[in-house]
């Protein structure tokens, strides 16, 4: 997971979730279909418990949907304005973006199967939409 802060969040979002414009192009989509941003706090036990779940899903999606979904993290104490902007009072909070637009929010402890299922549905819908647009 790449770490985002108030200073680089909007730049990354405006670059279609490419962390930097210097990043070499990879095989796969022009830019990620979905971006998952986990808001957490270092003192939050539930956040620490969810981290391995997100890391497992990140590995799974990198293999299955290379380049179509990317994962980021934002530490709320470090980026309090960003956390307030997205109303992440309950941690951990997972914000899902399609391109630059927020399309879903999930908060709190979420079982891995449920989180995986929700992401699969969102990704499938987005990929189906892209395929239709390319016709």
Written description of the protein model:
The protein has 135 residues and is of the alpha/beta class. The protein has one domain: Glutaredoxin (3-Layer(aba) Sandwich). It is 42% helix and 22% strand. The protein contains 4 helices and 5 strands. The chain has helices spanning 6-14, 45-64, 80-85, 112-133; strands spanning 2-4, 34-40, 69-75, 93-98, 101-107. A 5-stranded mixed beta sheet has the order 1-3-2-4-5. Strand 2, helix 2 and strand 3 (69-75) form a beta-alpha-beta unit.
Cα separation of the termini: 33 Å
Give the amount of beta strand, in percent. Answer: 15-25%
User: From the alpha-carbon coordinates, what is the Rg to the nearest angstrom?
Assistant: 14 Å
The largest sheet, given as strand count, sense and whether it forms a barrel, is: 5 strands, mixed
CATH architecture group name = 3-Layer(aba) Sandwich
Structurally, the number of domains stands at 1
Top-tier CATH class: Alpha Beta
- The succession of helices and strands, N to C, reads EHEHEHEEH
Give the class from helix and strand content and strand pairing: alpha/beta
Overall pLDDT: 84
Instruction: Give the helix proportion (percent range).
Output: 40-55%
Spatial order of strands in the largest sheet? 1-3-2-4-5
The total of helices stands at 4
Instruction: Fill in the CATH topology.
Output: Glutaredoxin
Tell me the name of the CATH homologous superfamily: Glutaredoxin
